[in-house]
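$ ./design --mode recover --in tokens.txt
reading tokens...
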């Protein structure tokens, strides 16, 4: 009994997972799974309970002033459409809100103290600060009323409270509030309705998907030992090399991979000549396309065929044939020579007769 047969008969105990595989499948994979679950939960919360509100309402309280001015860009801070509401503490006071350019508003409030609305301190609170306009106070008895001035793009006046809805198409536009009396107090409210809300859920969904993919890879590919991974890659390459290439005829055979021939030699070392099967001896001729240069073979065969054709077309003239040709040529030229001599003699006789006369 050979060693190989003995190994085949002995029962083989399955090998357990390696330490690397235990760590990847028992520690790393659950960690990525928990992170994926957490990302999905956070994404759902940001899409439902924690979803940002479309409506932003911010308020501020001003006191001890008559004018309130917004800085450029404050009206369109959240959205282009804004509704500005001013409610005075005095229900009998006339309150006006106008929209215009910063130059015109500065000229109207020159020399007077006012309150600036600079932006948002929080999502529900406006940030304000006290300021004083440059120049001197030019107000008098014959001044035009605030509501009748042509310096404003839009103006709205009412008693006690007033609301102005505007679209901040030009960022340089500002709003001016006239409370009607010095040292007045009021509450300024700005209401924006956002057309698009930031999506904070999608990044969590994306991170959760990546963690799921990593968990699957850690439980399968990354848990394999390096030599098993290399073996799988080599087997895949060997399978690709065994596939027949396009254009091969049915009679052509593909050379076997070197590894299979080496295994066949190794297993056949202990067999005698009588033990070799006829199929192994009388097998088909194996042609290895990689070992031959088909272009050079084609050129060589064309050169040989050209040489054979040239040999068939060219013939060699023997000396006898050459002598017979010259003799036949001499015979054909002899009558022509005799006729020319006779003609020349007749011409000479005629000339002599003319001279005798």
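writing sequence...
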């Amino acid at each position: 009994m050979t060693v190989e047969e003995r190994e085949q008969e002995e029962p083989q105990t399955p090998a357990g997972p390696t330490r690397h595989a235990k760590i990847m499948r028992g520690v790393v994979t659950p960690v990525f799974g928990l992170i994926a679950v957490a990302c999905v939960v956070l994404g759902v919360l940001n899409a439902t309970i924690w979803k940002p509100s479309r409506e932003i309402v911010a308020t501020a309280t001003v006191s001890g002033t008559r004018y309130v001015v917004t800085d450029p860009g404050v009206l369109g801070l959240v959205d282009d459409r804004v509704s500005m509401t001013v409610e005075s503490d005095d229900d009998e006071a006339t309150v006006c809100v106008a929209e215009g350019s910063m130059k015109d508003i500065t000229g109207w409030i020159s020399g007077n103290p006012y309150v600036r609305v600079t932006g948002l301190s929080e999502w529900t609170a406006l940030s304000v600060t006290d300021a004083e306009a440059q120049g001197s106070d030019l107000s008098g008895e014959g001044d035009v009323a605030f509501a009748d001035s042509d310096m404003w793009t839009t103006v709205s006046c009412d008693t006690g409270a007033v609301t102005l809805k505007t679209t901040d198409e030009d960022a340089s536009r500002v709003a001016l509030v006239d409370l009607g009396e010095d040292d007045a107090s009021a509450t300024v409210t700005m209401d924006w309705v956002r057309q698009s809300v930031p999506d904070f859920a999608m990044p969590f969904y994306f991170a959760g998907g990546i963690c799921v993919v990593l968990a699957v890879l850690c439980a399968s590919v990354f848990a394999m030992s390096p030599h098993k991974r290399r073996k799988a890659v080599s087997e895949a390459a060997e399978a690709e090399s065994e596939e027949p290439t396009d254009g091969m005829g049915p009679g052509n055979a593909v050379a076997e991979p070197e590894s299979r021939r080496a295994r066949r030699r190794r297993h056949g070392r202990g067999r005698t000549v009588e033990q070799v099967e006829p199929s192994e001896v009388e097998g088909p001729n194996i042609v290895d396309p990689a070992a031959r240069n088909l272009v050079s073979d084609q050129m060589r065969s064309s050169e040989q065929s050209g040489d054979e054709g040239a040999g068939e077309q060219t013939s060699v003239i023997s000396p006898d044939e050459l002598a017979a040709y010259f003799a036949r040529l001499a015979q054909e030229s002899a009558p022509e020579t005799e006729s020319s001599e006779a003609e020349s003699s007749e011409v000479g006789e005629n000339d002599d007769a003319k001279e005798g006369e």
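exit 0
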